[in-house]
Amino acid sequence: MLANLIEGFSNIFTFEILLMILAGSLIGYFVGALPGLTPSIGIAILVPITFGMDPIAALVLLVSLYGAAEYGGGITAILLNAPGTAAAAATAWDGYPLAQKGLANKALTVSILSSGIGAFVSAILLILTAVPMAKFALNFGPLEYFALAIFGLSLISVLSEGSLVKSLIGMFFGLVIICIGIDPIVGVTRFAESGSLLGGIPFLPALIGLFALSEVFYMLENTKNEKAVVEKVKGLGFTKEDFKKIWKTMIIKAPIIGYVIGVIPGAGATVASLVAYSEAKNSSKEKESFGKGNIQGVAAAEGANNSAVPGALAPMLALGIPGSASAAILIGALTIQGLQAGPKLFHETPEIPYTLFASLLISVPIMTLIGLLGVNLWVKVIKIPKNILAIIVSTICIVGAYAYNNSMYPVWIMLIFGILGYFIRKLHVPTTPIVLAMVLGFMIETNFRRAMIVSTEGVSFFFTRPIALVLIILAILMFFLPLVKKIRQKHKEQKDSKEIQV
Amino acid sequence: MKKFSLLLMFILLCILSACSNGNENALSGGKGEAATIDTTLDFEKQFTILVHTTAGGPTDLMARELAKAAEEVTGGTFIVENRPGGSGAVQMAEIANAKADGYTLGAMTPSQIGLIEGTLKNQYDLEDFSWISQGQIDPYVIAVHKDSPFNTLEELVNYAKENPGKLTVGGYGAIGSGHNVAWNIFSESAQVETVWTAYESTGDAVTAILGKHIDVANSNPGQVSQYYESGDLKILGVMSEERLEDLPDVPTYKEAGFDVDTSWAQFRGVYGPSGIDEAILQELSSIFEKAIATEGYQTYLKNSQMLTGDMDYKEFTDYVNNQSKIMVNWYEKLGVE
Amino acid sequence: MTFKLGNIIFSVAFLSIGFYFLIDTFQIQNLVSGNDVGPRAFPLLVAIGLIIFSGINLMTSIFEKNIEKLKFQNFTKVVLTMVGLVIFLILISAFNFYIASIIMIPILLWINDVRKVTRLGFSTVITIAFIFVVFDFLLGIPIP
Predict the structure, then answer these.
(1) Measured between CB atoms, does C99 come within 8 Å of chain A?
(2) B289, CA 20 to 30 Å: which among A426, B24, B167, C91?
(3) Torsion angle of alpha carbons A356, A359, A360, A361, nearest 10°?
(4) Beta-carbon separation of A165 and C60 below 8 A
């Protein structure tokens, strides 16, 4: 393995490959940062121009783009509350409040550092465990996916601020609207007879609406049209104390969570960032500061969504199974090159996967460096007066949503959800549960029904599948523990106030 | 700082233009040996093939290989553009509204027929399009895990007969999808009752069979052959008239004792808007026929375990009509609207 | 408008969405095979969930005693911008993105207090140029 890796490194240090890393990272940044353009769209755009290239150069270009795009999503999430990718939604929860406090530099620095470190640690995990982890992922059948999705949904009680009833309304609303369209198992139509609605309500445009566009309307409320404050900082605004506070999340927890969830095909970066964020919040001593600008939240979310990238490569390289939508396109790109991802790749052309591994170890530091250099440039974006910025952002959202599938339908969806988001946020209805439900709802329904169909013996199958059982128990704990804690705290406060009165 | 960012942008621009130049060179490689065909088509003009999936998918690959081969044959320029969205509806609308001069064409699969007979029934008819050439056939195969007790189709069918409604079969798409209809054609002839499990892609179904979550997977050869070679999966039968070159040990359904109509297949081809002049249709059809016969295209077919399509536009139109009939028939049988 | 009234409107709106979907669920053709629960079960379940929790929220907000005001700052501007965006999208469908944005971006900016002609023109040109360069030119993404 080591010999292969060394050979891989020797393949990288050519002008062409290093250029590919640089180009991939730069294009990835833009693709990720623009709302609506996901990593998979970015890869799909570049695939045709990789035709004439050497397979290694092509793969390195596309993988660098994939990683940088997952990071780029965090930039606009922090600066404008406009997550460029779905996986960056969790970054916005703490990143945007930080930027509003004038700490945009710090938030961006934390996000790029944890992305870089996360991706690096996860790349090492990938090199060491690609094959066994990919085999482990095969254990995930319909029931396990169902349990995983339920676990994801149970995070609502940790993630959402304020009224639980309102969170649940949001959740059920999200679950109802994902039913619109063609039923995935038997193919009958639901709530739609014809037209674009048959394709369902697309998630990404809805997310852009709920986050970015509703924030645009909030920006316009500002009568004085002032610029955002950015505190003058030396360097990048990141201190030793900050590092001490978040190193565990940054170096250990987020990368592992991101890698493991990334390996499971179909779960992906979005679920990884949600889980890592909830874990950070749950285990923190300062729970109240989450959602109001805690750098640990940014580190957890960004670290995990970038670590999911090498994770998604594991089943792709070892078994030829796509771990994510982007990995699926990468498999296509390999096929064009006359290569087949899967067991054959390691046996017949080991230089390909090992060069890819080596390129990850090189491209991640390069990506981090470019990101750090960009921090002070990106911050300039929010120095544009708010009213002008708001109009620019909404125009970009329109073009981004259009790129989702080259039609006006997702643009309308975005606008509707933007207006909805503005009004429900006024009433302190959290938008997170809607997003969570839309990400996971489809997974819950199809996999539950698939599990029912596949099991010929009935519901008892739950107890014969340990992974699913553990996930379900975790889900129940995750949902109720924070509630119990909240209630206890209330009791305590009431007691305290009574004692004071006495 | 500013200078640095400008420099980076400049590098980016250079790389992009370099990449696209390289691409053009690669594509125009065959221009020198332009064949002289008597023509009403002008090969100075650019041809565009629209694909209804994202880049990198099997249909996209077919279109790109076909375009490359057609450039070799004609010396013209064939550009492939992706128009994903609406399960193909976006691309279809563009094709339907395109000028019927033969320069705008689309890649197709049974999805287009499915849309015409299904969700877009009120919008389009088969006559609204010209069916030009069949690029390839991707036959269906039946695969099981290596630990599965079944070694032949017969054993599988015997088990299914003894345990009706127990055998779980996974494949791409809901009831009424191409894979589902293919399985139904088989199970009807074998007179067994099984449970269909829909997956979002053939790849997902293959993943499920590798993890032993389903008993049988209905797939295409390209998706399972490497697991067949590595011994992880067994392929029990192929839905085709003849055995496949790359799977010489796998019997056809007929050889295994199940005489089914094998005209139902996953095929990919080229179509265009209706109203294209007869002479131009004939010409396009023969261009693609020659393109399909080129060495490059044949190598690609062989690598991806697909069968060559050999139909001119008339045969292909009949073929499409026939596929549509089978589809409508099965839609009614299965109760899909 | 008070927070209480806003809450009641919200609950009623989502309650009606719940009922709308609940009634529509019965229109779904319920094809059930084997152990499958069918295409109707899940929408039915979640529609009921939506109704229950909207109902609870309605009840609690009716009996809410706190009459905090719901603040809408600059409400006319925000609503005008929303309407402006709707017109923007209609114009894009009718013509194309560039024509629509040359008309609508200055109008949207004007609504939001950018009144100086130079500033207005400059912002519009920069936005359109940015979209052209990044989306159209560099990435080759189709623009509406």
Answers:
(1) no
(2) B24
(3) 130
(4) yes
CATH of domain B35-138+265-334: 3.40.190.150
**Lowest-confidence region among A28-37, A104-113, B136-145:** A28-37
**What pLDDT score was predicted for residue C90?**
94
Supply the angle between the helices B278-293 and B58-74 in degrees, to the nearest 10. Answer: 100
User: What integer is the mean pLDDT of A53-71?
Assistant: 90
Only one residue has tokens 């969806």, namely A413
Could you read off the pLDDT of C48-103 as tens digits, one per residue?
999 999 999 999 988 887 778 888 888 888 999 999 999 999 999 998 899 999 99
Whether B35-138+265-334 and B140-239 share one fold: the answer is yes
Res C21 pLDDT > 90: yes
Q: List Cβ neighbours of A223 (8 Å cut-off, separation of 6 or more).
A: C73, C74
pLDDT of residue B15: 46
Q: How far apart are CA A180 and CA A173, in angstroms?
A: 12
Q: How far apart are CA A52 and CA B24, in angstroms?
A: 9
What is the pLDDT averaged over residues A82-102? 89
C27, C29, C33, C137: which to substitute to probe chain B, counting the most B Cβ within 10 Å? Answer: C33
CATH of domain B140-239: 3.40.190.10
Q: Which residue of C has its CA nearest to A224?
A: C113
CB contact under 8 A, C144 and A30: no
B29 interfacial to chain A (CB closer than 8 Å): no
Between C60 and A48, the more confident residue is: C60
Q: Contact at 8 Å (CB) between B46 and B79?
A: yes
Nearest CB among B12, B196, B337 relative to C29 is that of B337
**Ordered DSSP codes for chain C:** -BHHHHHHHHHHHHHHHHHHHHHHHTTS-----TT---TTHHHHHHHHHHHHHHHHHHHHHHT----PBPP-TTHHHHHHHHHHHHHHHHHHHHS-HHHHHHHHHHHHHHHTT---HHHHHHHHHHHHHHHIIIIIIII-PPP-
**B15, B199, B216: which to substitute to probe chain A, counting the most A Cβ within 10 Å?**
B15
- Chain C residue numbers with beta carbons less than 8 Å from the beta carbon of B164 are none
Question: Tell me, what's the pLDDT at A443?
Answer: 87
Asked if the model's pLDDT at residue A446 lies above 70, the reply is yes
CB contact under 8 Å between B206 and A184, yes or no, is no
Both tokens of A405, joined, read 């599938």
Contact assignment for B173 to A187 by CB distance below 8 Å: yes
List helix spans (H) across A34-183: 39-46, 55-80, 89-100, 104-137, 142-154, 156-159, 164-177
Contact across the interface for B197 and A138, Cβ inside 8 Å:
no
Q: What is the rounded average pLDDT of the residues B289-312?
A: 86
Helix/strand/coil for B149: coil
Q: Kind and range of the H or E element at A419?
A: helix A409-426
What is the per-residue pLDDT across B74-91, written as a single tens digit (0 to 9) for each? 888 888 887 776 677 778
Q: What tokens were used for A68?
A: 């940088």
Ranking A463-477, B150-164, C116-130 by mean pLDDT, the lowest is: A463-477
Q: Biggest alpha carbon distance in chain C? A: 69
Measured between beta carbons, the chain C residues lying within 8 angstroms of B12 are 138
Q: Name every residue in C having a CB less than 8 A away from some CB of B.
A: 29, 31, 33-35, 138
Q: Which of A165, A406, A444 sits opposite C53 (nearest CB)?
A: A165
Residue B24: is its pLDDT beyond 50? no
Write down the domain spans for chain B: 35-138+265-334, 140-239
Q: Which of residues 24-53 of B touch C (CB under 8 A)?
A: none
Q: Which residues of C touch A418 (CB under 8 A)?
A: 85
Contact pairs from chain A to chain C, CB under 8 Å: 187
Evaluate if residue B336 carries a pLDDT over 80: no
Q: What's the average model confidence in pLDDT over A197-201? A: 80
